[in-house]
Amino acid sequence: MASTSGPNAASEIANTLSTAAVEQPPLNVVDSVDSKVTKSPPPDTPENIRTRSFVILSFWIVVISVGIPLWWITTAIYRAPLPLKEMQSWADGRACRAEFPLLIDVEAPLLPDPENLLKTVQHALDDANDFSAHHLRLRLSTNAPKSPEKEEDEVVAATLRLSPGPAGKPHSYNLTPSSRVINLSYSPSYNPSTSLSAFVASTLQEIFAEEQQMISYLLASTTSNPSSSPATSSSTSNGNNGLGKVKVNTADITRKMSRIVRYSPTYHLTFSLFTASGLPNSWDVEHAISGYLQPLLDALGGISTFTVDSQIQFYASLSSSVSPTWVPGPEGGEEKGQWVLEKEDLSSFINSAEWPLVSITSYPTINFIIYIPSKDQTPLLISDSATNAFLLPQWGGVMIMNPNHGSPNSSSSSSELTSHLSKEALKPALDLFATQLLSLLGAPTRPASLPIRLDSLTRQRSAELVVSASSTLGSLYRLTLALPSISIPSSVSTSVASTLLSLKNACRELKNGRFAGEGGALEEGKNAAIQAESAFFEKSMVGQVYFPEEHKIAVYLPLMGPVGVPLIMGATKELGRLFRAWKAQRAIR
Fold first, then answer.
1. Lowest mean pLDDT among 33-37, 234-238, 411-415, 494-498
2. What is the pLDDT of residue 235?
3. Could you tell me which of 159, 105, 102 has the C-alpha nearest to residue 129?
4. β 396-400/389-392 pair status
5. pLDDT interval class at 414 (50, 70, 90)
6. Do residues 390 and 398 lie in contact, with contact meaning Cβ atoms separated by under 8 Å?
7. pLDDT band at 19 (very low <50, low <70, confident <90, very high)
8. Among 441, 454, 499, 504, which one is least packed by beta carbons within 10 Å?
9. Do the bridges between strand 325-328 and strand 337-341 make them parallel or antiparallel, or are there none, so unpaired?
């Protein structure tokens, strides 16, 4: 290629540069700014908007029509219907007014006008009784035959046998321990309207006073106004007949109730011999129980049954907190002295850490212990105790025996410990344990007649069972209202219905005076208490009592979050779009 030089070359370069400048477009500032702005997406077509709306709507239709019903059905808590008003009525003591009518047969063959005496005595008893639920009804016993139906319905609580006594002697009465007959001897010179009638009324009132106090105390817990019960009222007197009304000591009744073992159809009795040394090493407890205690257990069979076992524990030391005090005997006397336990030591007398006293049974256990101290700690006596024994409330009884020393509960005066306790040597202990057993079961301490005391115990236990079953129904009623999320299985409804039926039957039998036997108030009360406990402690229901609501949130939140957030956000955007479209269409109009 030919080279150029001079003015022609310079002009050619200038023309080339000017041509290039003309062909290149000038830089636009607006285009530079627009290139930095994000371009908006193209507008949705009507078909896309309808598709998106149908998708969101279809999801919500599936959730509402299928998901929520399925969740509701699978997580719903079944609550069987319960008669709540009736349960509350029984708990408040309004469903049944319990009555305890006691029929007293009066035998007075030698009285010239026994009907007039009975009317006067009955009037005196009614006036003196301020607890009408428990009342005595007198009936003149005649030689006329009675129909079997009438005899079956009319249960006689006691028989009052009136007979003239020696001249110049005042009125008196006595009870035999094994009979329900009250033998009353009256003075030949009497005035039926005053002297004899007042004595008969006061006698009957005294015999059944403790039973009346206990029943009134039990029923007071279910009444809406307990202050009106004689269990909390003071003693008053009636000026018309001179009889004092039933005296009630609330502290005594409360103390007695605190030591009574809770009722059970079956109790387990454990008899233990604890000796601080290796002697005695045997005892004839089986024959002793069979001869001295079994008759009482048979008599109590209508109220509860009993199972019995026994054990011997050698080298059983007392608790470290128990320290007997040595009391020397009088100077110049034959007695050297004795070890004395104060009443403060009795609460820690049982060495629970080392003494095997736990019985593996499903029944309440009542323990009876005979403790024989070591030779160097004999005789061991309880301060101010005639029986050298004590009672542990709701637990059992303990007797300290000193068989090698002359004491109220010993059978030998030998200076050496005996190796065997015979049946005769165990008699004082078994007799004492029988008394303690009656006390733990709640039998009245008076009167002397054991059959009357056991009848009183039957009536007390009937009242206790009715009150217990009613109270359990009240607890179940309150639990049902307090925890609406708890399930109530059909078995609870069935048990509650059975409880209410048994309570109605028990109330009816109480009014009819049928307390014991098959179909009596005690048996119906047992069924009511058992069914009420079964309803309240239903396993499937009790387990949910301790399931807090926070646990449900912890379970549902991880599941509902990933599903619920997209659904809610999609629905929110779609509703916003519909609102903007509606607003724009309205603006055009």
1. 234-238
2. 39
3. 102
4. antiparallel
5. very low
6. yes
7. low
8. 504
9. antiparallel
Q: Which two tokens stand for residue 145?
A: 């035959």
Neighbours of 283 (CB within 10 A): 22
**Tokens representing residue 504 in the block:** 């109605």
Give mean pLDDT, residues 198-216.
Answer: 92
Burial 71-95 (b: 16+ CB within 10 A, else e): eeeeeeeebeebeeebbbbbbebeb
Short-list 437, 469, 459, CA closest to 302: 459
Here the tokens at position 320 are 């470290």
Q: Alpha helices of 129-269 — where are they, by DSSP H?
A: 148-153, 197-207, 209-220, 250-259
Task: Quick: pLDDT tens for 210-224.
Answer: 999 999 998 886 554
DSSP 276: S
Q: What is the 3-state secondary structure (H, E, C) of 45-99?
A: CHHHHHHHHHHHHHHHHHHHHHHHHHHHHHHCCCECCCCHHHHHHHHCCCCCCCC
- 554-581: average pLDDT: 85
Helix (H) or strand (E) holding 389: strand 389-392
CB 292 within 8 A of CB 437: no
Residues 6+ apart with CB under 8 A from 242: 198
Token pair 């108030």 in the structure block, residue? 521
Cβ neighbours of residue 403 closer than 8 Å, sequence gap 6 or more:
280, 372, 410, 411, 412, 417, 418, 421, 425
In sequence order, what DSSP letters do the residues of 457-504 get, joined into one string? Answer: HHHHHHHHHHHHHHHHHHHHHHHHHH-TTS-B-HHHHHHHHHHHHHHH
Cβ-proximal residues to 241 (8 Å cutoff; 6+ apart), any chain: 123, 124, 127, 128, 198, 201
Buried/exposed code over 118-137 (b: 16+ C-beta within 10 A; e: otherwise): bebbbebbeebbbbebbbbe
With beta carbons less than 8 A apart as the criterion, state whether 102 and 207 touch: no
Structure tokens belonging to residue 187 = 């003075």
Q: Say if CB 173 and CB 449 are below 8 A apart.
A: no
> What number of residues does the chain have?
589
